[in-house]
Structure formats: C-alpha cells, structure tokens
Amino acid sequence: MNTKLSLTLLSAALGLGAPALAAPTLSAQSIIVNPVQTDLNVKVWTDRDSSGSGTPAYRPGEKIRLFTSVNQDAYVYLFNVDPQGQVDLILPNRFQGGANFLKANTVKAFPSAGDPFTFDIAAPYGVNKVLALASRTPLNLDQIASFKSQNSFASVSVSGQQGLAQALSIVVSPVPQTSWVTDTAFYAVAAPAAAAPLRAPTPAPAPVAAQPAPRTAQALSVTVQPKSPWGGAREWSALVENQQDLRAVHDRYAAYLRAEGYTLTELKSKPSEVKSEYRRANGGKAELTVKRKGNRIEVKVERR
Questions:
Q1: What is the C-alpha to C-alpha distance for residues 144 and 23, in angstroms, rounded to an integer?
Q2: What is the dihedral of CA 5, 26, 10, 78, to 10 degrees?
Q3: How distant is the alpha carbon of residue 231 from its chain centre?
C-alpha cells in the first residue's frame, strides 16, 4: 500500500545536506516515506490481512505472523510502534541472524517455520503500526538500536512513530535516494469481550472506578520455543531440500543454538558450505555445518 505524502521534514533540522536533495517525508500517520520515484518496492502485511490495507484485530495471547516481500534483492528492517509509542525492532534480530536480506519476488514470514520464537499479542490496546524499510544496501542502525544486552531483540533508543521516522530519515540520508522505500501495515490489539451477566444483580452495586487495561512492555512479546530438532543429542544430522538458500538454512538452525544460550564465535562461509562455532557461558561449545550434498543440503550439529 502507498501512503500519501503530507508533512515534509526540514532537511536543515535533520542535517540532510544540500537542499537539492528531496528530504524524506512523513505520511499522515507520521511514517517515513521516500518522496523520490524508485523502482524498488516493499510490501508488509499480517496473517489476517493479506492486502496490507486493513486493520485486523487480535486479542492478547493470540499469535501474529508478519509477511514481507520485495521486488528486488534488498535488506528489510521491520519496526513495530504500539499505541503508547513503544518502538520495537522486529528485524533484524539475533534469532534469525542475517535473515533480513530478502531475495527479489520472494515472500518471507516472521517468524518462519522452524524459528525458535513466536510473536505473541499483548496489551496496550489500540492500533499498532508495522513499518517495513527496504534498502538495496545495509543500513547502519547504531544510533537507533543496540544489541548490547543479552536479549535477542535490540534495545531501541527512540520512541513514538514521529521519533522513529525522524531517526530513520537520518539513517537513510547517506543512501542514494532511489535505493530505499517503505511500506506500513496496521493491526489492532482488542480488549477481551466482557462476559454477559447471567442475571441482573439485586440490588445494583455501588459504582466502581474503571480499572486500567492490563499493560506489558510491548505489543509484541517474544516467546522462545526451546525445543530443538536434536533434543538432548550431542551429535545430530539431517538432510533438507536443496531448493533453499544455504545461508538461510544455516541461520534457521543457528537460531536453535542461540535459543539454548550459545553465542556465535566464528563463521566461515563458502558457496557450498557454511560453518559456524559457538560457546556458552558454562564452557559448552557447539559447531554447526550446513553444506550441499548432491541434490540436498546436509545439516550437522555437534555439541560438547
């Protein structure tokens, strides 16, 4: 879906350089958009609205999946802004490694099948916005997000959709203007329906002050699914179809190791093989090898 341009950010205030360049703009919903025509296109939608133009409702405790696609190879960054202005960087994240690189004309789901986490709906109630920012080259988000903590999702230093839009305007300023584009999707967190009383109370109770809606730190909470394909086995291997990107297969299984507390220490990548090594705080080590084997891909995990 294409948002209409309404409010132009002042390039001088944002330090965007020469006035000859058109500054990024804000939509009516205060979401950053590119005012320059570009043949790069990105789409984002939820599992309950494939058009990406509606606002489907979810209730706390339900799960949501997000989908995105690009018409050209690009790096995609996903942000969620909740009704109170809390900003969460959904992608990239430590669970999926470098999986924010998308091939042209493919659809990527977050989480994907086999990912060791889910997106669970939680309060506050109201409309959430999901912003997808696609760029032909990687973007430097150091001024916005940090992975310094042990959390698998980044800590975001900006708040509110306008704060996010202004920060991203600075992030994309060094990038050629025809090489980035955005899209937005919306979903609502709905309060649970109140159950109808079986009978009218007699006498009527005294008025009670309304209780605030339950709140959590963010609209999208992450639940780690610790069960891995290898269970408690020290050595494990499997063959998967060869019609997949080798790095994507590696990142999917690496996510299970990260969910078990392993930290990446070394990564070696070849056209026919990707191998990585991990360590745990308790001294444990692990190796993951993903390589092409005939018309399939062999995945090996060794833990010690």
A1: 19
A2: -140
A3: 27
Which contiguous run of DSSP H or E holds residue 165?
helix 161-172
**β 25-27/5-8 pair status:** antiparallel
Tally of CB atoms within 10 A around 177: 16
Scanning the structure block, which residue is given the tokens 């080259």? 137
Pairwise CA distance, residues 114 & 208, whole Å? 47
- Cβ atoms within 10 Å, residue 18: 6
Per the model's pLDDT, the better-predicted residue between 49 and 222 turns out to be 49
Task: Say how many residues make up the chain.
Answer: 304
Does the model's pTM come out above 0.70?
Answer: no
Residue 165: which of 31, 6, 44 has the closest Cα? 31
Domain ranges of the chain: 5-189, 226-303
Token pair for residue 112? 């994907």
Is the model's pLDDT at 207 over the cut of 70? no
DSSP 202: S
pLDDT of 148-184, one tens digit each? 554 556 667 777 777 887 888 888 888 888 999 999 9
CATH of 5-189, one of 3.90.280, 3.30.310, 2.40.360, 2.170.140: 3.90.280
Q: Dihedral sign, CA of 24, 29, 31, 35?
A: negative
Query: How far apart, in whole angstroms, are the C-alpha atoms of residue 187 and residue 289?
Result: 39
Q: Pick from 33, 16, 2, 36: which is nearest to 171 by CA?
A: 16
CA–CA separation, 195 vs 175, rounded Å?
53
Sheet with strand 296-303: strands edge to edge? 235-241, 296-303, 285-293, 273-279, 263-270
| Cα separation, 1 vs 23, whole angstroms | 21
